[in-house]
Amino acid sequence: MSVTSEFSPLQEESTLLVVLEVFYLIFLIIFGLIGNIGLCAMVYTHRHLQIVSNYLIVNLSISDLLRIFFTLSVSTSVLIKRRWFYGETFCLLNGCYTLTFMIASLMSVALISANRFIQIVHHRDSATIFSKQRTKIMIFTLWFLACSISVPPNIGWGHYGFLSSRATCFIAVGSSYSYTTVLVLAFIATPFSVMVFCYVKIFLAVRRSRRRVVGRLSVGNLASAIPTESKENLRKEVKVAKTLLTLIGVYIVTWIPICVIHFVRLAKLAIISDSVDLVAAFLVSLSCVTNPWIYGFKNNHFRDQLKRMLCVKVRVMRETGRCQMNQFEMK
């Protein structure tokens, strides 16, 4: 990977490969905007969706929207021009805010996981721990930490540089082993650990609940009772297991490759090609698209509202079509 202060041009690639790279980022930008703006609009326009847990999801969408507007759009233009043309000052700013938005997104995922854990496993304390006021403080603290961790490279602990293989400015590999280690362990590995811990606990709690239900059933009414309450709990258990696997799988696919690459380079274990580095960066960007669907539209409330909105739109289109046909026939 090239890291220079002279902003060397991107490596030569075939026209087809460049077109594919640009269209991939455009795809992420379009669908990321649709998913995240749509989710935020739903919460804003429907009062019954304006609850604490959804505020956390909206916060995640905002961090992803900022990444789309200010990071992916810049990378797309750099891929097209095949060089960094924004100047050194904006490179430092680009590296700083890109890191801020990424960390805010990861910490939002951890906070959403903690919220769901408290809601299900410690339901009685949920309203107290995640009150509106405390949730606002948590979100503010989250952004404060995300901004704080992006400052050190500008004051000597590490530094930002243009990474031609990623078509963006970010932490220059090799600039500081200690800073990169703290960043990866505290702000990438920790959110992942929190997410896994919370969803495993949720899964175990749902499983214990199902077993208690089965245990309370007597032999006489077992056949009639299992098809109701017990099967419902089994369905919840399977759903939680699928959610857990989905979240862990997406996190591993999108974030682990970039972490492995950083540590491989720091330890000088191997030479990572620019192509591999770009793929890892593209996978991180993919989370801007997957997050609103995983954390938002997989939720029954959002999904039901989306269905209602689509049904209304279809009815309006049908009525409009009928009116136009009637007008045409009258003529």
Structural class: mainly alpha
Shape: globular
Tell me the major beta sheet.
3 strands, antiparallel
The low-confidence runs, each spanning 5 or more residues with pLDDT under 50, are 1-5
State the total count of DSSP E strands: 3
User: Could you state the order of secondary-structure elements as H and E?
Assistant: EHHHHHEEHHHH
Distance between the termini: 68 Å
Biggest sheet strand order reads 1-2-3
Oligomer: single chain
Radius of gyration: 24 Å
- Calculate the mean pLDDT score and round it: 83
Structure annotation, total helices = 9
**Residues in β-strands, percent:** under 5%
Percent helix among the residues? Answer: over 70%
Subcellular location: Cell membrane
Membrane topology: Multi-pass membrane protein
Pfam families: 7tm_1 (PF00001)
Keywords: Cell membrane, G-protein coupled receptor, Membrane, Receptor, Transducer, Transmembrane, Transmembrane helix
Describe what this molecule looks like in 3D.
This protein is mostly helical and 331 residues long. Helices cover 79% and strands 3% of the residues. The protein has helices spanning 15-45, 52-81, 88-121, 123-129, 132-149, 177-216, 222-266, 274-297, 300-330, and strands at residues 3-4, 160-163, 168-171. A three-stranded antiparallel beta sheet has the order 1-2-3. Helix 7 (222-266) packs antiparallel against helix 8. It is globular.
Note the topology.
Blueprint lengths: L2 E2 L10 H31 L6 H30 L6 H34 L1 H7 L2 H18 L10 E4 L4 E4 L5 H40 L5 H45 L7 H24 L2 H31 L1
Antiparallel strand pairs: 1-2, 2-3
Helix pairs in contact: 1-2, 1-8, 2-3, 2-8, 3-4, 3-5, 3-6, 6-7, 7-8
Pfam families: 7tm_1 (PF00001)
Membrane topology: Multi-pass membrane protein
Subcellular location: Cell membrane
